[in-house]
Design goal:
Helix content: 25-40%
Largest sheet: 6 strands, mixed
Strand content: 15-25%
Number of strands: 21
Length: 457
Protein backbone atom coordinates (compact mmCIF):
# COMPACT_ATOMS: atom_id res chain seq x y z
CA UNK A 1 0.00 0.00 0.00
CA UNK A 2 1.23 3.49 -0.78
CA UNK A 3 1.06 6.19 1.82
CA UNK A 4 -2.24 7.68 0.62
CA UNK A 5 -4.01 4.32 0.91
CA UNK A 6 -2.86 4.08 4.54
CA UNK A 7 -4.06 7.64 5.19
CA UNK A 8 -7.45 6.92 3.58
CA UNK A 9 -7.89 3.79 5.67
CA UNK A 10 -7.22 5.65 8.93
CA UNK A 11 -9.34 8.62 7.78
CA UNK A 12 -12.27 6.27 7.12
CA UNK A 13 -12.10 4.99 10.71
CA UNK A 14 -11.72 8.49 12.16
CA UNK A 15 -14.56 9.79 9.95
CA UNK A 16 -15.53 13.39 10.80
CA UNK A 17 -14.08 13.36 14.30
CA UNK A 18 -11.56 16.16 14.71
CA UNK A 19 -10.27 15.81 18.28
CA UNK A 20 -8.01 12.78 18.67
CA UNK A 21 -5.88 11.45 21.53
CA UNK A 22 -3.36 8.82 20.41
CA UNK A 23 -1.94 6.22 22.79
CA UNK A 24 1.77 6.48 21.93
CA UNK A 25 4.27 4.01 23.42
CA UNK A 26 7.07 4.72 20.95
CA UNK A 27 6.79 1.17 19.58
CA UNK A 28 6.32 0.21 15.95
CA UNK A 29 2.51 0.10 15.94
CA UNK A 30 1.78 3.42 17.61
CA UNK A 31 4.62 5.16 15.75
CA UNK A 32 3.08 4.17 12.41
CA UNK A 33 -0.39 5.26 13.55
CA UNK A 34 0.84 8.62 14.81
CA UNK A 35 2.81 9.20 11.60
CA UNK A 36 -0.25 8.47 9.44
CA UNK A 37 -2.36 10.84 11.53
CA UNK A 38 0.33 13.49 11.25
CA UNK A 39 0.12 13.16 7.46
CA UNK A 40 -3.68 13.22 7.61
CA UNK A 41 -3.48 16.52 9.48
CA UNK A 42 -1.93 18.13 6.40
CA UNK A 43 -5.07 17.18 4.46
CA UNK A 44 -7.44 18.14 7.30
CA UNK A 45 -6.10 21.34 8.93
CA UNK A 46 -8.93 21.35 11.49
CA UNK A 47 -7.74 18.01 12.93
CA UNK A 48 -6.68 18.46 16.57
CA UNK A 49 -4.11 15.79 17.36
CA UNK A 50 -2.27 15.03 20.58
CA UNK A 51 -0.48 12.00 22.05
CA UNK A 52 -0.19 10.37 25.46
CA UNK A 53 2.66 8.21 26.78
CA UNK A 54 1.97 6.01 29.83
CA UNK A 55 4.97 5.43 32.10
CA UNK A 56 4.22 2.13 33.89
CA UNK A 57 7.39 2.08 36.03
CA UNK A 58 7.92 -1.55 35.00
CA UNK A 59 11.00 -1.26 32.79
CA UNK A 60 14.40 0.28 33.42
CA UNK A 61 14.11 1.82 29.95
CA UNK A 62 10.75 3.54 30.51
CA UNK A 63 12.34 6.97 30.99
CA UNK A 64 14.27 6.59 27.74
CA UNK A 65 11.09 5.57 25.89
CA UNK A 66 9.34 8.66 27.24
CA UNK A 67 12.21 10.85 26.02
CA UNK A 68 12.04 9.15 22.60
CA UNK A 69 8.28 9.82 22.38
CA UNK A 70 8.83 13.46 23.34
CA UNK A 71 11.50 13.84 20.64
CA UNK A 72 9.22 12.34 17.96
CA UNK A 73 6.26 14.49 19.01
CA UNK A 74 8.41 17.63 18.98
CA UNK A 75 9.60 16.75 15.49
CA UNK A 76 6.03 16.19 14.25
CA UNK A 77 4.62 19.14 16.23
CA UNK A 78 2.19 17.02 18.23
CA UNK A 79 1.54 17.85 21.91
CA UNK A 80 2.50 14.96 24.22
CA UNK A 81 1.38 14.17 27.78
CA UNK A 82 3.56 11.81 29.85
CA UNK A 83 1.47 10.15 32.55
CA UNK A 84 2.94 8.06 35.37
CA UNK A 85 0.96 5.09 36.71
CA UNK A 86 1.72 2.35 39.23
CA UNK A 87 0.71 -1.08 37.95
CA UNK A 88 2.64 -3.01 40.57
CA UNK A 89 0.00 -2.53 43.28
CA UNK A 90 -2.57 -4.72 41.48
CA UNK A 91 -0.08 -7.06 39.79
CA UNK A 92 -0.37 -9.79 42.45
CA UNK A 93 -4.13 -9.84 42.17
CA UNK A 94 -4.54 -9.56 38.40
CA UNK A 95 -1.13 -10.41 36.90
CA UNK A 96 1.25 -7.80 35.56
CA UNK A 97 -0.24 -7.69 32.04
CA UNK A 98 -3.82 -7.14 33.22
CA UNK A 99 -2.73 -4.69 35.93
CA UNK A 100 -0.72 -2.61 33.45
CA UNK A 101 -3.60 -2.58 30.99
CA UNK A 102 -6.07 -1.50 33.67
CA UNK A 103 -3.78 1.29 34.89
CA UNK A 104 -3.17 2.41 31.31
CA UNK A 105 -6.85 2.68 30.38
CA UNK A 106 -7.73 4.39 33.64
CA UNK A 107 -5.14 7.03 32.76
CA UNK A 108 -6.60 7.35 29.26
CA UNK A 109 -10.09 7.92 30.65
CA UNK A 110 -8.85 10.66 32.99
CA UNK A 111 -6.92 12.45 30.24
CA UNK A 112 -9.58 12.24 27.53
CA UNK A 113 -11.10 15.65 26.85
CA UNK A 114 -14.72 16.33 25.96
CA UNK A 115 -15.49 15.38 22.32
CA UNK A 116 -12.04 13.76 22.05
CA UNK A 117 -11.69 10.16 20.80
CA UNK A 118 -8.98 7.75 21.93
CA UNK A 119 -6.98 5.96 19.23
CA UNK A 120 -4.90 2.84 19.85
CA UNK A 121 -2.69 0.95 17.40
CA UNK A 122 -3.72 -2.71 17.76
CA UNK A 123 -3.36 -4.59 14.49
CA UNK A 124 -4.47 -7.88 12.91
CA UNK A 125 -1.85 -9.98 14.72
CA UNK A 126 -2.95 -8.45 18.04
CA UNK A 127 -6.52 -9.41 17.22
CA UNK A 128 -5.46 -12.98 16.56
CA UNK A 129 -3.54 -13.14 19.85
CA UNK A 130 -6.51 -11.74 21.76
CA UNK A 131 -8.81 -14.35 20.21
CA UNK A 132 -6.48 -17.21 21.18
CA UNK A 133 -6.15 -15.85 24.72
CA UNK A 134 -9.96 -15.80 24.96
CA UNK A 135 -10.03 -19.42 23.77
CA UNK A 136 -7.52 -20.31 26.47
CA UNK A 137 -9.82 -18.75 29.09
CA UNK A 138 -12.82 -20.69 27.75
CA UNK A 139 -14.68 -17.53 26.71
CA UNK A 140 -18.02 -17.49 24.90
CA UNK A 141 -19.05 -15.33 21.91
CA UNK A 142 -18.58 -12.07 23.85
CA UNK A 143 -14.96 -12.84 24.73
CA UNK A 144 -14.21 -14.31 21.31
CA UNK A 145 -15.48 -11.12 19.68
CA UNK A 146 -12.06 -9.73 20.66
CA UNK A 147 -11.50 -6.07 19.77
CA UNK A 148 -13.83 -3.83 17.80
CA UNK A 149 -12.64 -1.16 15.39
CA UNK A 150 -14.95 1.30 17.16
CA UNK A 151 -16.28 0.91 20.69
CA UNK A 152 -17.65 3.06 23.50
CA UNK A 153 -14.99 4.27 25.93
CA UNK A 154 -15.59 6.48 28.95
CA UNK A 155 -17.63 9.46 27.69
CA UNK A 156 -16.44 9.02 24.10
CA UNK A 157 -15.15 6.38 21.66
CA UNK A 158 -12.12 4.11 21.31
CA UNK A 159 -10.96 3.73 17.70
CA UNK A 160 -8.55 1.09 16.36
CA UNK A 161 -7.83 2.07 12.74
CA UNK A 162 -5.12 -0.58 12.15
CA UNK A 163 -7.07 -3.73 13.07
CA UNK A 164 -7.07 -4.94 9.47
CA UNK A 165 -3.28 -4.53 9.03
CA UNK A 166 -0.61 -7.13 9.83
CA UNK A 167 2.56 -6.39 11.77
CA UNK A 168 4.60 -7.20 8.65
CA UNK A 169 2.72 -4.49 6.73
CA UNK A 170 3.42 -2.04 9.57
CA UNK A 171 7.12 -2.88 9.42
CA UNK A 172 7.13 -2.30 5.66
CA UNK A 173 5.45 1.11 6.08
CA UNK A 174 7.89 2.13 8.82
CA UNK A 175 10.90 1.14 6.71
CA UNK A 176 9.57 2.99 3.67
CA UNK A 177 9.01 6.14 5.75
CA UNK A 178 12.33 5.69 7.61
CA UNK A 179 10.63 5.78 10.99
CA UNK A 180 12.46 5.09 14.24
CA UNK A 181 10.78 3.18 17.05
CA UNK A 182 11.66 1.49 20.33
CA UNK A 183 11.42 -2.21 21.21
CA UNK A 184 9.95 -3.13 24.59
CA UNK A 185 12.45 -5.48 26.25
CA UNK A 186 9.57 -7.43 27.83
CA UNK A 187 8.28 -8.46 24.38
CA UNK A 188 10.83 -11.29 24.29
CA UNK A 189 9.77 -12.72 27.67
CA UNK A 190 7.60 -15.78 26.99
CA UNK A 191 6.46 -15.94 30.61
CA UNK A 192 3.77 -13.54 29.44
CA UNK A 193 0.95 -15.37 27.68
CA UNK A 194 0.65 -12.94 24.80
CA UNK A 195 4.39 -13.16 24.04
CA UNK A 196 4.23 -16.96 24.16
CA UNK A 197 1.43 -16.96 21.58
CA UNK A 198 3.17 -14.33 19.45
CA UNK A 199 6.56 -16.04 19.38
CA UNK A 200 5.91 -19.71 20.09
CA UNK A 201 2.50 -20.45 18.60
CA UNK A 202 1.53 -18.12 15.75
CA UNK A 203 4.73 -18.55 13.68
CA UNK A 204 4.13 -22.32 13.53
CA UNK A 205 0.44 -21.92 12.68
CA UNK A 206 1.10 -19.21 10.08
CA UNK A 207 3.76 -21.34 8.42
CA UNK A 208 1.14 -23.98 7.69
CA UNK A 209 -1.83 -21.61 7.23
CA UNK A 210 -0.52 -18.21 6.01
CA UNK A 211 -3.94 -16.52 6.27
CA UNK A 212 -4.75 -17.81 9.74
CA UNK A 213 -4.87 -14.31 11.28
CA UNK A 214 -7.40 -13.13 8.69
CA UNK A 215 -9.57 -16.21 9.34
CA UNK A 216 -9.46 -15.58 13.07
CA UNK A 217 -10.49 -11.96 12.50
CA UNK A 218 -13.51 -13.16 10.51
CA UNK A 219 -14.44 -15.56 13.32
CA UNK A 220 -14.17 -12.71 15.83
CA UNK A 221 -16.46 -10.57 13.66
CA UNK A 222 -19.01 -13.40 13.44
CA UNK A 223 -18.92 -13.81 17.21
CA UNK A 224 -19.43 -10.07 17.62
CA UNK A 225 -22.42 -10.15 15.24
CA UNK A 226 -23.95 -13.07 17.11
CA UNK A 227 -23.42 -11.36 20.44
CA UNK A 228 -24.98 -8.13 19.14
CA UNK A 229 -28.05 -9.97 17.85
CA UNK A 230 -28.40 -11.90 21.10
CA UNK A 231 -28.15 -8.70 23.13
CA UNK A 232 -30.82 -7.01 21.02
CA UNK A 233 -33.19 -9.94 21.53
CA UNK A 234 -32.58 -10.18 25.27
CA UNK A 235 -32.35 -6.53 26.33
CA UNK A 236 -36.11 -6.07 25.99
CA UNK A 237 -36.81 -9.17 28.08
CA UNK A 238 -34.27 -8.09 30.71
CA UNK A 239 -35.97 -4.69 31.06
CA UNK A 240 -39.31 -6.42 31.73
CA UNK A 241 -38.00 -8.57 34.60
CA UNK A 242 -36.12 -5.74 36.38
CA UNK A 243 -37.54 -3.44 39.04
CA UNK A 244 -36.92 0.31 39.41
CA UNK A 245 -33.62 -0.41 41.21
CA UNK A 246 -32.34 -2.58 38.32
CA UNK A 247 -32.66 -5.73 40.41
CA UNK A 248 -33.72 -8.85 38.51
CA UNK A 249 -36.76 -11.00 39.36
CA UNK A 250 -35.95 -14.46 40.70
CA UNK A 251 -39.50 -15.66 39.97
CA UNK A 252 -39.14 -14.69 36.30
CA UNK A 253 -35.73 -16.40 36.02
CA UNK A 254 -37.17 -19.61 37.51
CA UNK A 255 -39.52 -19.95 34.53
CA UNK A 256 -36.62 -20.01 32.04
CA UNK A 257 -34.21 -22.61 30.76
CA UNK A 258 -30.77 -22.72 32.38
CA UNK A 259 -29.18 -21.42 29.17
CA UNK A 260 -31.45 -18.37 28.88
CA UNK A 261 -31.16 -17.67 32.59
CA UNK A 262 -27.34 -17.68 32.37
CA UNK A 263 -27.33 -15.36 29.34
CA UNK A 264 -29.69 -12.92 31.03
CA UNK A 265 -27.67 -12.96 34.23
CA UNK A 266 -24.48 -12.21 32.29
CA UNK A 267 -26.19 -9.40 30.40
CA UNK A 268 -27.54 -7.98 33.66
CA UNK A 269 -24.10 -8.13 35.32
CA UNK A 270 -22.53 -6.46 32.28
CA UNK A 271 -24.96 -3.55 32.69
CA UNK A 272 -23.55 -3.07 36.19
CA UNK A 273 -19.94 -3.22 34.87
CA UNK A 274 -19.47 -6.25 37.09
CA UNK A 275 -16.75 -8.83 36.57
CA UNK A 276 -18.11 -11.68 34.44
CA UNK A 277 -18.63 -14.89 36.43
CA UNK A 278 -17.61 -18.34 35.25
CA UNK A 279 -20.23 -20.98 34.51
CA UNK A 280 -19.54 -22.50 37.91
CA UNK A 281 -20.03 -19.12 39.61
CA UNK A 282 -23.35 -18.65 37.79
CA UNK A 283 -24.49 -21.96 39.25
CA UNK A 284 -23.45 -20.82 42.72
CA UNK A 285 -25.28 -17.51 42.29
CA UNK A 286 -28.47 -19.36 41.46
CA UNK A 287 -28.21 -22.08 44.08
CA UNK A 288 -26.76 -20.11 47.00
CA UNK A 289 -28.38 -16.72 46.42
CA UNK A 290 -31.60 -17.07 44.43
CA UNK A 291 -32.71 -20.42 45.89
CA UNK A 292 -31.52 -19.95 49.47
CA UNK A 293 -33.94 -19.91 52.42
CA UNK A 294 -36.36 -17.00 52.56
CA UNK A 295 -34.96 -15.85 55.91
CA UNK A 296 -31.31 -16.10 54.77
CA UNK A 297 -29.16 -13.13 53.74
CA UNK A 298 -26.69 -14.74 51.31
CA UNK A 299 -23.93 -12.84 49.56
CA UNK A 300 -21.46 -13.69 46.78
CA UNK A 301 -18.63 -11.32 45.85
CA UNK A 302 -17.60 -10.61 42.27
CA UNK A 303 -14.65 -8.22 42.28
CA UNK A 304 -15.86 -4.88 43.65
CA UNK A 305 -19.50 -5.99 43.68
CA UNK A 306 -21.75 -8.16 45.83
CA UNK A 307 -24.74 -10.20 44.70
CA UNK A 308 -27.59 -10.33 47.21
CA UNK A 309 -31.27 -11.24 47.37
CA UNK A 310 -34.15 -9.19 48.75
CA UNK A 311 -37.89 -9.79 48.34
CA UNK A 312 -37.37 -12.30 45.51
CA UNK A 313 -35.08 -10.03 43.54
CA UNK A 314 -31.35 -10.34 42.84
CA UNK A 315 -29.34 -7.18 43.50
CA UNK A 316 -25.87 -6.33 42.20
CA UNK A 317 -24.39 -3.73 44.54
CA UNK A 318 -21.00 -2.12 44.97
CA UNK A 319 -19.10 -3.02 48.11
CA UNK A 320 -18.87 -0.19 50.63
CA UNK A 321 -17.31 0.35 54.03
CA UNK A 322 -19.13 -0.54 57.23
CA UNK A 323 -20.31 2.79 58.66
CA UNK A 324 -21.94 1.57 61.89
CA UNK A 325 -19.18 3.00 64.10
CA UNK A 326 -19.27 6.45 62.48
CA UNK A 327 -20.63 9.37 64.52
CA UNK A 328 -20.55 12.75 62.76
CA UNK A 329 -21.08 15.96 64.74
CA UNK A 330 -23.08 18.42 62.63
CA UNK A 331 -22.91 22.19 62.90
CA UNK A 332 -26.27 22.56 61.20
CA UNK A 333 -25.55 26.00 59.77
CA UNK A 334 -23.03 24.22 57.51
CA UNK A 335 -23.34 21.52 54.83
CA UNK A 336 -22.41 18.10 56.18
CA UNK A 337 -20.45 15.83 53.84
CA UNK A 338 -21.29 12.18 54.46
CA UNK A 339 -18.68 9.40 54.23
CA UNK A 340 -18.29 6.71 51.59
CA UNK A 341 -19.92 8.53 48.65
CA UNK A 342 -23.28 8.96 50.41
CA UNK A 343 -23.56 12.63 49.53
CA UNK A 344 -24.33 15.52 51.86
CA UNK A 345 -26.96 16.98 54.16
CA UNK A 346 -28.32 20.52 54.00
CA UNK A 347 -30.44 22.12 56.75
CA UNK A 348 -32.79 25.04 56.10
CA UNK A 349 -35.82 26.49 57.89
CA UNK A 350 -39.20 25.14 56.86
CA UNK A 351 -41.42 28.16 56.45
CA UNK A 352 -44.74 26.38 55.73
CA UNK A 353 -47.07 25.47 58.57
CA UNK A 354 -48.41 21.94 59.11
CA UNK A 355 -46.58 20.31 56.20
CA UNK A 356 -44.38 17.41 57.21
CA UNK A 357 -42.74 16.13 54.02
CA UNK A 358 -41.33 17.68 50.87
CA UNK A 359 -40.20 14.52 49.05
CA UNK A 360 -38.86 11.10 49.90
CA UNK A 361 -35.33 12.40 50.61
CA UNK A 362 -36.29 15.47 52.60
CA UNK A 363 -37.55 15.42 56.16
CA UNK A 364 -39.08 18.06 58.39
CA UNK A 365 -38.25 17.87 62.09
CA UNK A 366 -38.42 20.09 65.12
CA UNK A 367 -35.35 22.30 65.64
CA UNK A 368 -32.69 21.17 68.09
CA UNK A 369 -32.55 22.94 71.43
CA UNK A 370 -29.40 24.80 72.46
CA UNK A 371 -28.40 21.97 74.82
CA UNK A 372 -28.90 19.25 72.18
CA UNK A 373 -25.87 18.05 70.20
CA UNK A 374 -26.79 17.19 66.60
CA UNK A 375 -25.08 14.09 65.20
CA UNK A 376 -25.44 11.74 62.26
CA UNK A 377 -25.02 8.03 62.93
CA UNK A 378 -25.56 4.82 60.99
CA UNK A 379 -26.66 2.41 63.72
CA UNK A 380 -29.47 2.26 66.23
CA UNK A 381 -31.41 -0.38 68.16
CA UNK A 382 -34.48 -0.93 70.28
CA UNK A 383 -38.13 0.03 69.72
CA UNK A 384 -39.02 3.28 67.99
CA UNK A 385 -42.25 5.24 67.75
CA UNK A 386 -42.53 7.15 64.48
CA UNK A 387 -44.80 10.00 63.44
CA UNK A 388 -48.24 8.80 62.42
CA UNK A 389 -48.13 5.59 64.47
CA UNK A 390 -49.69 4.88 67.85
CA UNK A 391 -47.37 2.01 68.75
CA UNK A 392 -43.62 1.46 68.75
CA UNK A 393 -41.84 -1.07 66.56
CA UNK A 394 -38.31 -2.43 66.56
CA UNK A 395 -35.92 -0.85 64.09
CA UNK A 396 -35.61 -4.19 62.29
CA UNK A 397 -39.37 -4.32 61.75
CA UNK A 398 -39.37 -0.73 60.53
CA UNK A 399 -36.62 -1.43 57.99
CA UNK A 400 -38.64 -4.40 56.75
CA UNK A 401 -41.86 -2.38 56.63
CA UNK A 402 -40.21 0.34 54.54
CA UNK A 403 -38.54 -2.29 52.29
CA UNK A 404 -34.99 -1.22 53.11
CA UNK A 405 -32.62 -4.04 52.05
CA UNK A 406 -30.27 -5.30 54.79
CA UNK A 407 -27.13 -3.97 53.07
CA UNK A 408 -28.56 -0.43 52.94
CA UNK A 409 -29.64 -0.24 56.57
CA UNK A 410 -26.23 0.94 57.80
CA UNK A 411 -26.02 3.47 54.96
CA UNK A 412 -29.13 5.45 55.95
CA UNK A 413 -28.08 8.65 57.79
CA UNK A 414 -29.72 8.70 61.22
CA UNK A 415 -30.31 12.12 62.81
CA UNK A 416 -29.77 12.27 66.58
CA UNK A 417 -30.23 15.06 69.14
CA UNK A 418 -27.91 14.04 71.97
CA UNK A 419 -28.61 10.27 72.15
CA UNK A 420 -32.23 10.49 70.97
CA UNK A 421 -33.10 9.29 67.46
CA UNK A 422 -34.96 12.03 65.59
CA UNK A 423 -35.21 10.70 62.03
CA UNK A 424 -33.90 8.28 59.42
CA UNK A 425 -33.20 10.39 56.35
CA UNK A 426 -35.61 9.62 53.54
CA UNK A 427 -37.46 6.99 55.62
CA UNK A 428 -39.20 8.21 58.78
CA UNK A 429 -39.37 10.82 61.54
CA UNK A 430 -39.67 9.64 65.16
CA UNK A 431 -42.18 10.94 67.69
CA UNK A 432 -39.26 12.74 69.43
CA UNK A 433 -38.51 14.61 66.23
CA UNK A 434 -42.08 15.50 65.28
CA UNK A 435 -42.32 19.04 63.79
CA UNK A 436 -44.10 21.58 65.95
CA UNK A 437 -47.57 22.38 64.66
CA UNK A 438 -48.18 25.93 63.58
CA UNK A 439 -44.51 26.95 63.72
CA UNK A 440 -42.37 28.14 60.84
CA UNK A 441 -38.97 27.47 62.37
CA UNK A 442 -39.02 23.69 61.93
CA UNK A 443 -36.00 22.27 60.12
CA UNK A 444 -36.09 21.01 56.56
CA UNK A 445 -33.19 18.59 56.02
CA UNK A 446 -32.32 17.51 52.50
CA UNK A 447 -30.21 14.47 51.66
CA UNK A 448 -28.36 15.34 48.44
CA UNK A 449 -26.23 13.52 45.91
CA UNK A 450 -22.48 13.52 46.25
CA UNK A 451 -21.90 15.43 42.99
CA UNK A 452 -24.90 17.75 42.91
CA UNK A 453 -27.22 19.51 45.30
CA UNK A 454 -30.22 17.40 44.31
CA UNK A 455 -31.92 14.70 46.38
CA UNK A 456 -30.76 11.13 45.90
CA UNK A 457 -33.13 9.03 43.79
Amino acid sequence: MNQQIWINQVAECVAERNKLLVAFSGGLDSTVLLHILMKLRYQRPNLQLRAIYIHHHLSQFADQWGEHCQKICNQWQIPLSIIHVNAKEKAKEKGIEAAARQARYQAFSKELDIEECLLTAQHLDDQCETFLLALKRGSGPAGLSSMAKCSVFHHSLLLRPLLGVTRRQLEYYAQQEQLIWVEDDSNSDQRYDRNFIRQGVLPIISQRWPHFAQSVARSAELCAEQELLLNELLHEQLAIIQNDENAISINALQMMSIQRRHVLLRLWLAQHNCKMPSRQQLGLIWQEIALSRIDATPCIRLGEFELRRFQQYLYCIKRYDDLRQHILTWQTNEILTLPNYLGMLIRTLHMQKNKYNENKNSIIVRPAELNELVTIRFKTHGSIKIVGRSHSRTIKKLWQEFSIPPWLRNRIPLLFYNDVLIAALGVFVTFDGKPRDGETNNWLIKWCKHDAYTPID
